[in-house]
Each structure stands twice: as structure tokens, then as C-alpha cells.
Amino acid sequence: MPSQLLSKSELLVLYGQALEADLAQISQRLLERGDMLATAESCTGGMIAAACTDMAGSSQWFERGFVTYSNAAKAQMLGVPAALIDEHGAVSEPVARAMAEGAIAHSEAQASVAVTGVAGPSGGSAAKPVGTVWFGWCVGGVTHSEVQHFSGDRAAVRAATVRHALRRLRDWLTD
Question: Nearest 10 degrees: CA dihedral of 107, 109, 112, 117?
């Protein structure tokens, strides 16, 4: 599969109807709460925002998406301290958390999801191999984070990242 932005229909082929069901639940919960969502994406390059905005009516609950692929963009658009990136690297828990919090601080949203990772095929290291993705979510003023290690090519890692980011967002919104 080419390493380009996947459409919602291509993501559904990879992950079935589960992605669509997760998005339906996310939209319902956000609407019930009166909350808006912002995304802060690095390795997915806007794929999470694209999946959200593929849903009809998403303007009622999706506020904005930040594509912060470079370290400078993370600092400029989300307020991630450059020193934090220098100390921990862009693919790290502190940066994912700062991205999620920065998406809230630099938008009108009350919920956010952030991803930063190594999609490959190059760029990995022994400490952070290809497929390593850090996630951050900020929901109800509480920031959550976790790391996942996905296998496959660049497209598979990015698609798995979108799926996991939305599945866990659904979980945080229903807790």
C-alpha cells in the first residue's frame, strides 16, 4: 500500500466497521458533553482529523486539527517547549502529553488526541524502533498517555495509529 494519506474508506478496509462505530460513539459523547475535539498529529499527518471530518455533521464536534510534523511546528503551533523535545526526543511521553495539552490550549476544544511516532521505513533506533508511537489524550482536564509498538509498513503503522488513537479516545470519553 502506498505511504499516502488513507481515506476513511481505505481505513475501513483495514479495520472494518470498528473505526466507524468508534467515531459514531465519539461524536455522540462529544455532543452529549457539549465538547469539541482537536487533534495534534505528527506521524499520521492529519489522518485522524481526516477520519473525523469524513463523518457528516462533524462540524458540530470537531474543532480543528494541527499537523505538527516538524519539531519547530510542535513548538510554534502547540507550545511544546523545545527543551522538552531536546531532552526526551519528539517521540516520547512528555512530548505526546504536551501536544495533547497544547491542542487544548491553542483551540476552542475541550478534548484532544495527540500522536507522535516513527512510522518508517527509516528513522527508528534501538530505543525507538519503527512502529513506536506515543499517544496523548486530554479529556475533561485530565491528560492520559501511552505507548504502542505497531508492526508492518509505513501505511500499516499509520493506520494502526489512527485506529488506536480513536479507540482510546472513545474509552476516555465514556469513562
Answer: -20
Q: How big is the chain, counted in residues? A: 175
Q: pTM value?
A: 0.91
Q: Please provide the DSSP assignment of the chain as one string.
A: --SSPPPHHHHHHHHTHHHHHHHHHHHHHHHHHT--EEEEESTTTTHHHHHHHTSTTGGGTEEEEEE--SHHHHHHHH---HHHHHHH-SSSHHHHHHHHHHHHHTSS-SEEEEEEE--SSS---SSS-TTEEEEEEEETTEEEEEEEE--SSHHHHHHHHHHHHHHHHHHHHH-
The C-alpha cell that represents 174 in the structure block? 465514556
Lowest mean pLDDT among 52-56, 75-79, 91-95: 52-56
For range 93-102, the mean pLDDT: 98
Average pLDDT, the chain: 92
Residue 134 in contact with residue 80, Cβ under 8 Å? Answer: no
For residue 2, what pLDDT is reported? 45
User: Tens digits of per-residue pLDDT, 148-175?
Assistant: 999 989 988 999 999 999 999 999 998 7
